[in-house]
């Protein structure tokens, strides 16, 4: 009886050790957090519009816990140390495009760094009820600054601009805490490093042009025994480095070398011509019939070209209002 009673504590202790062993994980899992950031593409950008261009990407943050954790919430901070405003560099060139990245869609909170005293992007991740890992995905935003009309293209074609963020410009810090008792803390107090993360920003600057024109209005005349002159203006704005050509149509005749104005409500006509020079030597047309189209290379700013109109001496037709409609076309 005595021996039997002495065995009970040993058996119970052994059973208790076995129960505790079942409650403990087979191996320890470190509490860590990591992040992946998708590239952000702004798509096609036309600088001459002077408009800002927005874009967005996504951030995925994953945190792990041990089976038994007294800190079920993790604060993860993503820091960008690159100088602000940020720039994308032209492929094969030295030009740069200004842009920035933001945590909010209204573009009011720039993505910065706790170390620099600016605002990193941060997110709280909670331990799931079942399992030891949780992933949270959310957007971030970018905006190319307005009023950059002189951004160039290369080779007279669409040109890529980009910025690749490496580990030297990024850092991930995180910490675990008990919500409500010890937190939430701020990013400045996060000391556990998750290393850097990489991603890229890109945009394509496209060749683009806009064109405008004023009317040519000749003075009234009773007889066409003297030539009549008038001037008008063609305006063109093209992407910096973009070659272009401006052609003028032939109007009612369809022949740029032989333009005629037609009487309103009638068939009578008055011959006239539009020249690219004040000496009336170069007829402005479409490179047919001895006419010449005007060419140029864009700078991003508006260029102005004078049209010189001439009604030569000719037989005077019946009185009335004469007009023609010319189409100015810019090719690039």
TrEMBL record:
The keyword Transmembrane does not apply. InterPro entries: Spore_coat_component, Spore_coat_U/FanG. The keyword Signal applies. Keywords: Signal. Pfam families: SCPU. Residues 1-30 form the signal peptide. It comes from the Bacteria. Residues 28-152, 197-329 form the Spore coat protein U/FanG domain. PANTHER family: EXPORTED PROTEIN (PTHR37089:SF4), PROTEIN U-RELATED (PTHR37089). This is Fimbrial major subunit CsuA/B family protein.
């Amino acid at each position: 009886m005595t021996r039997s009673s002495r065995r009970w504590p040993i058996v119970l202790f052994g059973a208790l050790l076995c129960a505790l062993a079942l409650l403990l994980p087979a191996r320890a899992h470190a509490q860590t957090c990591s992040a992946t950031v998708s590239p952000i593409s702004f798509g096609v950008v036309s600088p001459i519009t002077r408009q800002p261009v927005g874009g967005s990407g996504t951030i995925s943050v994953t945190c792990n816990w041990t089976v038994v954790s007294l800190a079920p919430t993790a604060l993860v901070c993503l820091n960008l140390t690159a100088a602000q405003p940020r720039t994308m560099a032209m492929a094969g060139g030295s030009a740069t495009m200004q842009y920035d990245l933001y945590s909010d869609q209204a573009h009011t909170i720039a993505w910065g760094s706790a170390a620099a005293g600016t605002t990193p992007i941060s997110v709280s991740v909670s331990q799931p009820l079942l399992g030891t890992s949780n992933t949270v995905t959310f957007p971030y935003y970018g905006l190319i600054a307005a009023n950059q009309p002189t951004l160039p293209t290369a080779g007279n074609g669409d040109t890529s601009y980009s910025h690749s963020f490496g580990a030297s410009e990024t850092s991930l810090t995180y910490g675990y805490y008990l919500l409500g008792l010890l937190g939430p803390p701020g990013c400045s107090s996060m000391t556990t490093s998750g290393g850097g993360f990489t991603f890229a920003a890109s945009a394509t600057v496209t060749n683009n042009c806009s064109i405008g024109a004023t009317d040519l209005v000749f003075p009234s005349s009773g007889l066409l025994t003297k030539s009549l002159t008038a001037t008008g203006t063609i305006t063109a704005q093209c992407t910096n480095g973009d070659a272009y050509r401006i052609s003028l149509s032939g109007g009612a005749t369809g022949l740029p070398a032989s333009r005629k104005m037609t009487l309103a409500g009638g068939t009578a006509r008055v011959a006239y011509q539009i020249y690219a020079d004040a000496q009336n030597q170069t007829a402005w047309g479409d490179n047919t019939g001895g006419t010449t189209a005007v060419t140029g290379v864009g700078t991003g700013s508006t260029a102005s070209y004078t049209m010189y109109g001439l009604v030569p001496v000719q037989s005077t037709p019946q009185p009335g209002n004469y007009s023609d409609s010319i189409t100015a076309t810019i090719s690039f």
